[in-house]
Specification:
It is a single chain. By secondary structure, the chain is α+β, with helices and mostly antiparallel strands. It folds into 2 domains: 141 residues, Fructose-1,6-Bisphosphatase, subunit A, domain 1 (Fructose-1,6-Bisphosphatase, Chain A, domain 1, 2-Layer Sandwich), CATH 3.30.540.10; 109 residues, D-Maltodextrin-Binding Protein, domain 2 (3-Layer(aba) Sandwich), CATH 3.40.190.80. It is 33% helix and 26% strand. It contains 8 helices and 14 strands. Helix 1 runs antiparallel to helix 2 and helix 6 packs parallel to helix 7. It is globular. The model has no long low-confidence stretch (mean pLDDT 89).
């Protein structure tokens, strides 16, 4: 295991210890301000606390690396850093504040714009998943693999955020839901990508995410044998925000047959 991976896991463990005992407790929170932000875009003191803890853990070992993180370091220019960490201290803050175990801590390490390694804490299973490019995805020493199944037995998640929720629910969900076993409509892209890597979901459709939502999960899915593409089946650039499909090989093309019809309205 690379040193950067061990540090990512260590940072995720530290954040886990804070969040596991505090989920659902009353916290100070506020609504974020910015383009396309809505009442659902909230941040809490625990988001800020965990982000600082993760960043401090990384900086103690790698003081010359860059950090791109959702809450306080979201303006970092990735092009300025050969070594870059991409962090979401709590992906699924709404669930976390409600006391629901559907949130995660996402930490990815990027070299020259390409994913190198990652760690992802899943609150639902109380596990930390990790991966290294070309070396596989794991829970501790157990290797992960996506689960192939027939299309009609597939369980797929749809995460559209708030900005494009109406379009996704009207243009994609109705046709898709009647074709497969179950369509799960839930936020928390990092968690959902972890579920795909574990074989709990066969696919995930995400519309216009931010890179900290999916960087770690994208590497996990790829290293677990899954496919990542844009909504039209083409290779997905790490810093693209158009949306993507993450799926097992058996169902990926079929999912794209639905998502390629989605054209966001301005």
């Amino acid at each position: 295991m690379f040193l950067v991976t061990r540090i990512a896991i260590e940072a995720a463990e530290k954040a886990k210890k804070i969040l596991f005992t505090r989920q659902g407790l009353i916290k100070q929170m506020w609504i974020k301000h910015g383009k396309n932000m809505t009442h659902a875009d909230i941040v809490t003191t625990d988001d800020i606390r965990c982000e600082k803890l993760i960043c401090d853990t990384i900086m103690q070992e790698f003081p010359d690396h860059g950090i791109l993180s959702e809450e306080t370091k979201n303006q970092t220019d990735p092009k300025k850093y050969t070594h870059l960490w991409i962090i979401d201290p709590i992906d699924g803050t709404i669930a976390y504040t409600a006391g629901l175990p559907f949130y995660s801590v996402s930490i990815a390490y990027v070299v020259d714009g390409k994913l190198h390694s990652c760690a992802l804490y899943l609150s639902a299973t109380n596990e930390i998943l990790w991966a290294e490019t070309g070396r596989g995805a794991y829970i501790e020493k157990q290797r992960l693999a996506v689960k192939d199944t027939t299309w009609f037995n597939a369980i797929i998640a749809l995460d559209s955020g708030t900005t494009y929720r109406t379009q996704a629910l009207t243009k994609i969900a109705p046709m898709l839901a009647k074709d497969i076993r179950f369509l799960q409509i839930t936020p928390g892209e990092a968690s959902n990508l972890g579920y795909v890597a574990k074989g709990l979901l066969q696919g995930l459709i995400c519309i216009f995410p931010d890179v900290w939502d999916y960087a770690a999960g994208m590497l996990l899915v790829q290293e677990a044998g899954g496919i990542i593409s844009d909504l039209y089946g083409k290779p997905y650039n790490l810093f693209s925000k158009t949306g993507h499909v993450a799926a097992s090989p058996a169902v990926h093309k079929k999912i794209v047959s639905f998502t390629q019809l989605f054209i966001p309205e301005s």
